[in-house]
Design goal:
Blueprint lengths: L8 H5 L7 E4 L2 E6 L2 E5 L5 E3 L14 H8 L3 H9 L10 H11 L4 H15 L2 E4 L2 E4 L4 H6 L2 H9 L3 H12 L5 H6 L2 H8 L7 H11 L10 H10 L13 H15 L3 H15 L6
Antiparallel strand pairs: 1-2, 2-3, 3-4, 5-6
The protein binds a DNA duplex (14 and 13 nucleotides) through helix 4, helix 5, helix 7, helix 11 and helix 12.
Length: 280
DNA sequence: CCAAGGCCTGAATG
DNA sequence: ACATTCAGGCCTT
């Protein structure tokens, strides 16, 4: 057991993967679908529903992964600086809605919107003397009106949320199947959901569907690539079109390997911290 | 296939 | 104060 294996809860939660988390008395509490997770200072996980989860992906051979993604001085620095940062495995439906909401937004506002959605449509429960609202089930959001959803502050994304919820509620797309499927097929399917483009799809695949080669390319990652990897991944066009996104992703996986998503997470965390961006 | 513009909202910036 | 910009994109033209 080397210190590579120690999980840094704080850094993992504060890395733009999850939004419905808060700290009470030194414990982190987070909504994960129909469950609530409590992470104590020691890092032990307690589930409200008594469900076994691998929220911190202990199944991953993290030492091997870190070795695999440490291709250059930049990744090595990020990994060293934020050792203990993990990809989290979260509830897929909540993850999907979270990143639909995230588009053209920022962490503060995403958090607010999602809290509003939970309060309005989720079930209120008590856990260890604290009050929580579970994340609404797909059926609940599917039958809600656009205006009700809009009242949560999500603006034009409201119709995306409703339609996405409907697709999941009707089981037109089944997350368990996507988990078993390969990256390319799963992505193709999830991109048919309104409000889901390349970036949102990659977030959902990486953070909830076990696809560690997905590498979400948002404004920040593009900035990072231009800053540290301009020679390796030169961009052909000004805007990232779908074709360019795919070409870039292929180059990235060729370079960082099958766990490229972890590289993305370390780089993202490092750069956001450099710019002193606020988290939860 | 690519570029440009619009879109809700509210915190940050000038 | 008040206007304008901008933020972890997506969709349509």
């Amino acid at each position: 057991m080397q210190n590579n294996c120690i999980i840094n809860v704080e850094n993992s939660i504060n890395s733009g993967q999850v939004f419905l988390w808060r700290k009470n008395d030194n414990n982190w509490y987070g909504i994960n679908g129909q469950d609530i997770l409590k992470i104590s200072t020691s890092g032990s996980v307690k589930s409200y529903q008594n469900v076994k989860t691998d929220f911190f992906r202990k199944k991953d051979d993290i030492e091997n992964i870190i070795k695999s993604i440490s291709k250059d001085s930049t990744t090595k620095r990020a990994v060293k600086q934020y050792l203990g940062l993990r990809i989290l495995e979260q509830d897929p439906f909540q993850c999907l809605i979270s990143f639909i909401v995230s588009s053209n937004s920022n962490i503060q506002k995403i958090k607010n919107s999602l809290e509003n959605i939970s309060k309005k449509f989720g079930v209120k429960v008590k856990f260890e003397n604290h009050e929580f609202f579970l994340f609404p089930k797909p059926e609940m959001l599917a039958k809600a009106s656009i205006n009700e959803i809009k009242s949560c502050g999500v603006g034009y994304r409201a119709r995306f949320i409703k339609e996405a919820a409907n697709i999941i509620a009707l089981k037109k797309i089944n997350f368990e199947n996507l988990k078993k499927d390969n990256y390319k097929n799963a992505k193709e399917e999830i991109c048919t959901i309104p409000g889901v483009g390349n970036k949102v799809a990659d977030c959902v695949l990486l953070f909830s569907l076990n696809k560690l080669e997905s590498f979400p390319l948002d404004r920040w990652m593009i900035r990072i690539l231009e800053k540290y990897y301009s020679e390796k991944f030169q961009l052909e066009t000004k805007t990232i079109t779908e074709k360019q996104y795919n070409i870039l992703h292929e180059k990235i996986v060729n370079y960082f390997g099958p766990f490229a998503g972890y590289a993305q997470q370390f780089l993202f965390k490092m750069e956001r911290e450099n710019y002193q961006k606020k988290w939860l």
